[in-house]
């Protein structure tokens, strides 16, 4: 090799920044999390399918706690104690027009909150109070837990927290001594479960490619429907006690948060935005490994917040 050729090679090496203290090094490649997922991890491989399944599974418990009152707060059937002209259970006569000692609930009084606390006639408005309090709690919980997920805890930890609180408040609801305590516990349960739907949706769509986000976003409603359809399977064996229904539904999110959430990955996008680049890269490497791929060693993540800030600074300086 001639001296001219050697000099040319050295110039090319220096211009490309490929030589460092006489050793060959690869040029650093900077990509956003979206680009890494699209180009190297895979838009929707085995790792994304498992992540989406484990994350959206929590919607089952969200549906159960939201719609459980269909069974626990239902008005049970009634019958006449002594058939008479004024009491015919088969007619359209109202219970409020009958004497208290002429009729009775069919089955145990503990089959529902309406039967146990006589939430009928002049007390009928109290029967709707727990459901109203539940959705008020959900409203406040969505604001607070959404802020926690974005600013402090992240998506995964918020899901774990929400499931644990949902399990605890649902279990404590089963010990309500009256409708007022019951309404308050439904408020706390609504506050607790509000983080599930928000974080599950975001955590699912943040690990897949752009073209799959619509489909993944709709998968949560599928699991919500499964949760609703599973309620009769829980309520029928516990039809003699509305309290047992709450105890069963409380055990499911507890088991989920203990046994399944450890296998869920935190959102690499959220980690990147919070400046935790190394953790985000580890998550991406694990996702790529499950898909049978490997990330290039010279690959680094661009923080979109820093990119936007530098762009704005350049524009302001040019002005």
From TrEMBL:
Ranges where the Major facilitator superfamily (MFS) profile domain occurs: 51-319
Membrane-spanning ranges: 159-185, 191-209, 221-238, 244-265
Broad class of the protein's primary localization: membrane
Membrane topology per record: Multi-pass membrane protein
Gene3D superfamilies, A to Z: MFS general substrate transporter like domains
InterPro entries hit by this protein: MFS_dom, MFS_sugar_transport-like, MFS_trans_sf, Sugar_transporter_CS
Localization per Swiss-Prot or TrEMBL: Membrane
Domain of life: Eukaryota
A molecular function GO annotation: symporter activity
Pfam family for this entry, one: Sugar_tr
Keywords: Membrane, Phosphate transport, Symport, Transmembrane, Transmembrane helix, Transport
Assigned GO CC terms: membrane
BP-aspect Gene Ontology terms: phosphate ion transport
Family note: Belongs to the major facilitator superfamily. Phosphate:H(+) symporter (TC 2.A.1.9) family.
Name under which the protein is recorded: H(+)/Pi cotransporter
Organism per entry: Dioscorea zingiberensis
Higher taxonomy: Eukaryota, Viridiplantae, Streptophyta, Embryophyta, Tracheophyta
